[in-house]
Amino acid sequence: MPQMGESIAEGTLSKWLKKVGDEVKRDEPIFEISTDKVDAEIPAPTSGVLAEIVVTEGQTVPVQALVARIETEKGAAIGAPASAPAPAASVPAAPAATTAGGPPREASTAAAASVRTPSPAPATVSMPSGNGLEDRLRTKSSPLVRKIAAEHGIEVAALQGTGIAGRVTKRDILQFIESGAPAPAARSQATRPSMHAPGGAEPHGPLPEPWPGDVVEPMSKIRRLTSDHMVDARRHAAHVTSFFEIDLTRVARLRAKQRAQFEQQTGQKLTFLPFIIRAVVENLKKHPIVNAAHDGARVILRKQLNIGIAVALDWGLIVPVIKGADDLSLSGITKQLNDLADRARTKRLKPDEVQNATFTITNPGVFGSLMGTPIIPLGTSAILGLGAIEKRPKVITGPDGEDTIAIRTCAYFSLSFDHRIVDGSDADKFLAAVKKGLESFPDAAL
Known about the structure:
It is a single chain. By secondary structure, the protein is α+β, with helices and mostly antiparallel strands. It folds into three domains: 10-115, CATH 2.40.50.100; 124-206 and 219-227, no CATH class; 238-445, 2-Layer Sandwich (Chloramphenicol Acetyltransferase), CATH 3.30.559. It is 25% helix and 22% strand. It is built from nine helices and 20 strands. Strand 3 (29-34) and strand 4 form a beta hairpin. Helix 7 packs across helix 8 and helix 7 packs across helix 9 (424-439). The radius of gyration is 25 Å and the shape is globular.
């Protein structure tokens, strides 16, 4: 299991792309993994024949754990897929020999030794406060652990695990069950928090149960993570949304005029989004509070301008980040935007490419949505939602003061902001400046 970033302690092997007996080539994708940060395809570290699969689909194991064996000698015996052993308790992993997203190396001696380490004492009960960093990390157990806990009525947050930062591993929870110790009282449906209610609020009613004929599907890793992140973000920030209608007629004309030449010179498709990103970046410099973060006692004004762009995938949502967007030209923004979006769709993003956004843009308008109230990502103070770009009849004032009706290319922009640190006047001044920048976009910017 490769180390996909410094903060990643484990990964879920979501899909094998090869089966036992298949020939594999060096750097050819052989399996897919899901982590807390990204889904990715993992390439083979060498050429040969896939001789044994050690970790089966759906299992979560620590980084550097052995997941398969590749036989590099011709005619070597091929073994049948082995039943995956219970993952060892997570231990601090040695630094990976490759960069995030690179080919996995063979399991290290330390990782192999961890599999043979005598079983630790069963996880002990320690009711957490829920506010500290360790408490939050501990509750971020793997989907498999949460499933086992739910089946046995155990609260994961009430266990002290042996993994990194007290994370509860599969072995921890199985040993706790086998020990026969009374399970920590699981919250009943009557006291279980609602996904749609603030922390500590009473739920709206009992959780839904499947009816006869219903199709019940388990959440995928990315869907579960999205769910957790959205609920955390909704509870964390004081959400307010402001709406502006923006006239994009000038941008549409510039795009139409320069599109063929731009695409010929750069090889990139020129959409409306790079123009919008450029206008946003220029005005984030002038309104730093919209590019800020909040830790409960301090406001952190970010100097970096890293723009997250929400990308809708067939299997979920991911937000790759354009780093240092203020240093990029329109063509540079376009190139990075298209590259990140393409690699997101083919599961080739690296963990650091979906981290450290300081401001986010989501574009539901491509699906026809006129406007929305997007949720502010954790660690930021605002997110911009783009509605459908369409032609509308508008009343405009001519040079002599006369009013006429004209056809204009317009869209609704919505800015959701954290009212704890961003006042309504600050948010509206920022959005008004973006509007002005787009409605008077300079030719030279191309």
